[in-house]
UniProtKB/TrEMBL annotation:
Origin organism lineage: Bacteria, Pseudomonadati, Pseudomonadota, Alphaproteobacteria, Sphingomonadales
Reactions listed under catalytic activity: Preferential cleavage: (Ac)2-L-Lys-D-Ala-|-D-Ala. Also transpeptidation of peptidyl-alanyl moieties that are N-acyl substituents of D-alanine; [GlcNAc-(1->4)-Mur2Ac(oyl-L-Ala-gamma-D-Glu-L-Lys-D-Ala-D-Ala)](n)-di-trans,octa-cis-undecaprenyl diphosphate + beta-D-GlcNAc-(1->4)-Mur2Ac(oyl-L-Ala-gamma-D-Glu-L-Lys-D-Ala-D-Ala)-di-trans,octa-cis-undecaprenyl diphosphate = [GlcNAc-(1->4)-Mur2Ac(oyl-L-Ala-gamma-D-Glu-L-Lys-D-Ala-D-Ala)](n+1)-di-trans,octa-cis-undecaprenyl diphosphate + di-trans,octa-cis-undecaprenyl diphosphate + H(+)
Protein name: Penicillin-binding protein
GO biological process: cell wall organization; peptidoglycan biosynthetic process; proteolysis; regulation of cell shape
Source superkingdom: Bacteria
Keyword Chaperone in annotation: no
Gene Ontology cellular component annotations, sorted alphabetically: outer membrane-bounded periplasmic space
Length: 715
């Protein structure tokens, strides 16, 4: 301001400095000199007095600093009208708009809108055995989505009154509703749109970040869907307790009627369940459900959906529950098969019924065999399959109710000497024969020095005898001769996918862990001589010629396969697996890990391949249990019943005075058993036993009444 005063006000005071044209010279160099200034200090024209100019600028700065900036209070409009503030405000608003657009794009990618059309819980799946017998049912009860246009007002109104009164007027988040809920305790703080966003896209965690994401998704849903579409998706997916998801499933379950036909009191009770479905479940806590229904009806009166007189006239709804799940929700087999079934299912509301490969009779037999095995505190795993990989029975433990952990598919344990199958098979492919010999002397060199059971050694031993007697030192020597890479390659070709350390000689004795299902599938590959065998729980479609042409399956030569079966048969008939011997061709191998932590028997006979494992979950020792003991007996017991083999003949008791053991022999009425070459026979009838002989006119009859001779007609 001082500078302008100098230029303009000064002109009024000093007319002598006005130029010829009537203007005041801007620069001193342009101002004519006064006579007084023509002194000895005279400066030529064109020179500048810089000190005077600097003094003027300093005076200007001082004057400007003394003038306060008139901003005013920040809530006044004038405060925000400055150019600099407008510059920042425009850019902040633009950044917020860009961030909002980016969030919408992110939601479109990470939370697709179609997800709100899917049920929030997997729909119910019923598994059937191969003969059509239901064996397990798992999953949520869901039904077809509802349509708002088809629902009467008295069905929709209870949900709006108790959950979101301003649903049709807000934009996804309702501050007034939150304040009302906090003040009155009625209704929820979250809108219906927020609840749909929460159970469709988010986890139930309680955090501010989750609430922020919930609000963003709610705005997004409001922008893309109509109000009726949001309400339809909400009612079709909400949880109503008792494993019922969606209004249709809940109304059918609790009142056995479709939601379009619900009565006002029934709709009010269902609306009340949403806050705490388990707490207000009317099948278990009807009094709580009725009290909650009264609260819903009161909210409807407050909103104006009904009068107080109409509310007082509403009766208590009567439940009509007709559907009950009388099937187990899980079994060892079902827990393994169900995830595989869902992989091939389309996401939707339709309940599914899937047939499996499980044989109901063989499964029942497996359960009986395990229950009478005398396991003590030990656990057990048993799996039976066809050589093609079709699993027909599975027992993952002594009791599913006590422990659903599946020792067939989940437990990874050392296979012990059952792993020797891969060592000897690799040796046969390398040109060895079962009659070839190998040293059976103790290994005295190297860091790994395994020992034979009971310290039994010999100078040499044939491969067949080494396999049958499960010689550890001979197997390790053979492993080193063949090479670990060839043994691992053989295991991989038979379908073993578990880690197998290369160069570790302890691998020959089964030091690397795997599942019983994986091991049994490898033996199935040997039984079929076509591998790898993939275990499956559902009937497989017949392979097309094109798939067969490009199949990656492999097989051993006829010589190799025959020699391997010769050794597997020797292991049962005259080796460590003698307790599993059957009256038909049988093949198998025992396995016992260090300190008797695991005991196994895996083998095949007829059209069944069965693996049995016995052990403790804490990996402690089984004491004196070996693979040739309890597992082999369980295997034989199951095989004998599964293949419908005759019971073993009774042997003389070492103690004639001991108790008489009942024989497990099924003899049909009228069956005749020959006793000699002279025609003597024993015939079983309903009332007793008859002894007769060809050419003798009498029979000896033994009944409960005693012994009697009866004459017979010689004709």
């Amino acid at each position: 301001m001082a500078l302008f005063e100098r230029f303009w006000k000064r002109s009024a005071r000093d007319d002598s400095r006005v130029g010829e044209g009537g203007y005041y010279a801007l620069y001193d160099s342009q101002r004519p000199l006064d006579p007084d200034e023509r002194t000895s200090s005279y400066r030529p024209a064109g020179s500048t007095d810089f000190s005077r100019w600097d003094a003027g600028l300093s005076q200007l700065d001082s004057s400007a600093a003394l003038v306060p900036e008139n901003r005013g209070p920040f809530w006044k409009r004038a405060f925000w009208l400055s150019r600099r503030k407008r510059w920042w405000a425009v850019r902040i608003i633009a950044a917020l708009i860009l961030l909002f657009i980016a969030l919408f794009a992110w939601l479109a990618i990470t939370a697709p809108l179609s997800k709100s059309l899917e049920p929030i819980a997997a729909p119910q799946v019923t598994l059937l055995a191969s003969d059509g017998t239901p064996i397990a049912r798992s999953g949520a009860m869901v039904a077809e989505p509802v349509k708002i246009a088809d629902l009467p007002p008295h069905v929709i109104q209870p949900f709006l009154a108790i959950e979101d009164r301003r649903f049709y007027s807000h934009w996804g988040v309702d501050p007034r509703g939150i304040a009302r809920a906090a003040w009155t305790g009625r209704g929820g703080g979250s809108t219906i749109t927020q609840q749909l966003a929460k159970f469709t896209f988010l986890t139930p965690e309680q955090s501010l970040s989750r609430k922020a994401r919930e609000a963003m998704i709610a705005f997004w849903l409001e922008g893309w869907l109509t109000k009726d579409e949001i309400l339809e998706r909400y009612l079709s997916n909400a949880y109503f307790g008792d494993n019922q998801y969606g209004l249709r499933a809940a109304s059918l379950h609790y009142f056995y009627r479709n939601p379009e036909n619900l009565k006002p009191e029934q709709a009010a009770m269902l609306a009340g369940l949403l806050q705490a479905p388990s707490r207000y479940n009317p099948t278990e806590h009807y009094d709580r459900a009725k009290a909650r229904m009264d609260l819903v009806v009161g909210a409807m009166v407050d909103v104006g959906y009904m009068s107080q007189a109409e509310a007082d006239a509403l009766p208590a709804p009567r439940l009509d529950v007709r559907t009950r799940n009388d099937l187990p929700t899980g079994t060892y087999f079902a827990d393994w098969a169900l995830p595989l079934a869902r992989e091939d299912m389309e996401r939707g509301y339709q309940r599914q019924v899937v047939q499996t490969t499980l044989d109901a009779q063989l499964q029942a037999l497996a359960n009986r065999v395990v229950s009478r095995a005398g396991l003590g505190d030990a656990q057990v795993g048993l799996v039976a399959m066809r050589p093609t990989g079709e699993v027909v029975a599975m027992v993952g433990g002594k009791s599913y109710a006590d422990s659903p952990f599946n020792r067939v598919t989940q437990a990874r344990r050392q296979p012990g000497s059952t792993f020797k199958l891969f060592v000897y098979l690799a040796a046969l492919e390398a040109g060895w024969d079962p009659e070839d010999t190998i040293s059976n002397q103790p290994i005295e060199q190297g860091s790994y020095r395994p020992k034979n059971s009971r310290e039994r050694y010999s100078d040499t031993i044939t491969l067949e005898d080494a396999f049958a007697t499960s010689s550890n030192v001979a197997s390790v020597r053979l492993f080193n001769e063949v090479g670990s890479e060839n043994v691992i390659r053989m295991a991989r070709s038979l379908g073993v996918s578990s880690p197998l350390p290369e160069g570790d000689p302890s691998l020959a004795l089964g030091s690397s862990s795997m599942t019983l299902l994986e091991l049994t599938s490898a033996y199935a590959g040997v039984a079929a001589n076509q591998y790898p065998v993939r275990p499956y729980a559902f009937p497989q479609e017949e392979e097309s010629w094109w798939e067969w042409l490009f199949s990656s399956e492999d097989s051993a030569s006829e010589r190799v396969h025959s020699d391997m079966e010769q050794m597997l048969r020797a292991a049962i008939n005259r080796g460590t697996g003698g307790a599993a011997e059957l009256p038909i061709a049988n093949f198998g191998k025992t396995g016992t890990t260090q300190n008797n932590r695991d005991a196994l028997f895996v083998g095949y006979a007829g059209d069944l391949v069965v693996g049995v494992w016995v052990g403790n979950d804490d990996n402690s020792s089984l004491g004196g249990v070996t693979g040739g003991g309890l597992p082999a007996r369980i295997w034989k017991d199951f095989m004998r019943g599964a293949l419908d083999l005759p019971a073993p003949k009774s042997k003389a008791s070492p103690d004639p005075q001991g108790p008489v053991e009942p024989l497990d022999i099924d003899i049909e009425q009228g069956e005749e058993i020959p006793l000699g070459e002279d025609g003597t026979s024993l015939r079983f009838e309903e009332d007793g036993v008859v002894l007769s002989q060809d050419g003798v006119p009498v029979e000896l009859r033994v009944t409960e009444e005693g012994i009697a001779l009866e004459e017979i007609d010689p004709r």
